[in-house]
Amino acid sequence: MKRLMIGAAMIAMPLPAAAQDAQPAESEALTGLQATLTDPAKQQEIAATLRVLGEVLLDLPLASLAGAARNITGEEVPKVSPDTTLRSMAPQASRLPEQLEENAPRAMAAMGDMSRALETMLPALRDMAKRLEETVPAADRP
């Protein structure tokens, strides 16, 4: 139990000072993050970008990656035709870009909700860090 308390205190110790110095900045950052994550236009923009990136990755020739893997690991890797792509190796992966585009807005909205919850919890987390700092003897701190 003592180790747990010491570990928690070590993690939380910098929080009170940082919270006092950066409290408005944290709140502004989280508010900005929430605004970005919950903005439907931004969600659609990022979703479209993810779709394009997915398409590009699916059509990337794998031979150069196999050569890089061989150079990095020093181990032989199976020979890969210069025309081989992830799409040709795994045709079912062709649905990935569409799925990224479809699911990104929902995932971003959920992350926005989570950041809103974190912002709500910040005062309690700061208070917990302060109590831990006051409770754990200075000799047990790093």
H/E element string? Answer: HHHHHH
Work out the count of structural domains: 1
Give me the secondary-structure category: mainly alpha
- Average pLDDT reading: 82
Assembly classification: single chain
Radius of gyration: 24 Å
Largest sheet: none
Give the beta-strand count.
Answer: 0
Q: What would the principal axes of the Cα set say about the shape?
A: flat
Q: What is the number of helices? A: 6
Q: How big a fraction of the residues is strand? A: under 5%
Distance between the termini: 17 Å
Segments where pLDDT lies below 50 for 5+ residues? 1-20
Helix content: over 70%
How would you sum up this structure, described in words?
The chain is mainly alpha-helical. It has one domain. It is 77% helix and 0% strand. The chain has helices at 2-12, 14-38, 40-58, 63-73, 86-89, 96-135. The longest helix has 40 residues, at 96-135. The radius of gyration is 24 Å and the shape is flat. Residues 1-20 have low confidence and may be disordered.
